[in-house]
Amino acid sequence: MTTELPRGALRRGVFAGCASLLFLVPAAAVEPHALQPASPVVQSASPTPKNDYALIYGTVWGPDQHPAAGIPVTIRRASGKKAKWDLVSDRNGEFAQRVPAGGQDYVIQANIKMPKGQPKPEITVHIDDNERKDVSLHLSK
After folding, report:
1. I need a labelling partner for 24 at 20 to 30 A (CA). Which of 6, 89, 101, 134 fits?
2. pLDDT, tens only, 92-120
């Protein structure tokens, strides 16, 4: 035989039981250091880290002079043959890549199909130090 309790009676009973258990724990059982406020944490003052990179930030422009989205872009050192970074322009035609700081030339190239004999659109940018360079890459018809 089961008896039905009024709605919420079980929750009230459990809460009352838990609350009464708190009064059974004597205050002496709590360690004294637990009642003291924690000491503030002091961090050593270290210099802010230097940015050891430069930022190449670019926009790909289509033949209609509007930003071109989804264009594959490669970045390589001018002294190298292989692309070091592969990117894709976002919906605003923009891309960004961190490169090592220091005196270096980089070639940025749109990796698109071109008619036979025509080179792919590219631009060369020189990075001196930890700086930002803004570039525009224009696609032809």
Report:
1. 6
2. 999 999 999 989 999 999 999 999 999 99
User: With contact defined as beta carbons under 8 Å apart, do 95 and 134 qualify?
Assistant: no
CA–CA separation, 90 and 99 (whole Å): 19
39-65 pLDDT, tens digit per residue, is: 555 555 555 556 689 999 999 999 999
CATH code given to domain 53-138? 2.60.40.1120
Cα 122 to Cα 75: distance, rounded to the nearest angstrom: 10
| Residue 89, Cβ density class (10 Å: 0-12 exposed, 13-18 middle, ≥19 buried) | buried
Could you tell me the pTM of the whole model?
0.62
Closest to 127 (Cα-Cα) out of 59, 72, 51: 51
Please count the other Cβ atoms lying within 10 Å of the Cβ belonging to residue 130. 16
Query: 72-77 and 94-100: which strand pairing?
Result: unpaired
Q: How far apart are CA 60 and CA 95, in angstroms?
A: 8
